[in-house]
Amino acid sequence: MPIKLEELKPAYYSIFLFIIILFIGILGFSLIEGYPFVDAFFMTIITVTTVGFGEVHPLSSAGKIFTSFLIIFSFGFFAFSATTITRYIVSGVFRNYFKYSKVKKEIDHLTNHVIVVGYGRNGSQAIEELKYHEIPLVVIENRENKVKEIQQKGLLYIDDDPSSDEVLINAGILRAKALISVLPTDEENLFVVLTSRALNTDITIISRAINLNTIKKLKIAGASHVIMPDKISGQHMANMIAQPNVIEFMDYLMLEKDTEFILDEISCVGIAENTSPNIQQINSLCNENLNILGLKRQDGNYIVNPGPDTKLYNEDKLFVLGKPSEIEQFQKAISGKTV
Model's pTM, two decimal places? Predict the structure, then answer.
């Protein structure tokens, strides 16, 4: 759990009390004995800590009385302050608090990032893929053994209850572009989806589902997409038998990190801003090794292998196959350009 400011109040009170004692001692020795600041400070320290050193200068009767009362009243306060501060230092509370504050500042500077709720088998795989694509992310996890793994990975994380509005806000849900919920149970995922959608109506929410009858509930709660890992893995294994070469080829394109060609999506925003060009017109902007395989319309419908006369609109997405450098050049070529 993150260390909150309220939990550090005893330590701050102790430090404040110690400063008050120092101030009274320095002021008293300066006014009564006429000591300069350094001598007054030294006398206050050796008096409060009772280390047994002699006086800097011989004390007057008033100075002796002041010193006696300073010892009586400060001894208990100093012991309490020293014990409290030492306990916080030894237990690592201060270290954890400042570490958490540093992480929180980094999270506060994130925008268009992804929040991953849960660091189980599916969550860790999603995080590895996001890291590969250099997408900034924040993990929310409160299981102690998982938090240790997250720390070892050097990820930005929040160790707290993911169903809390405050925790999601601290994770930057108001600035995030997507949230992935992969908690162990459907009930937990449902609550996170519902809370997240209430906080940010525009965010893309992807949730894991274990039971088939939970999918509809998750979508009603606000999930943009619901994934059943067990169902997908079963279908994948069956297709490896029915269509082994096709599946291996798709795995090669989607999962291999070192492949020369990748399958990616291209936004039509820019090229179709003022006109509605067709596939044939934008082919002139493509490298000869770049292939347009499909198209997704704004309403969610797909067109596989679109013909040359297929019109493009501002919210469409093109699916292209090519080298990463060629795809990047193509995206730059069509951004803000009309044909």
Answer: 0.63
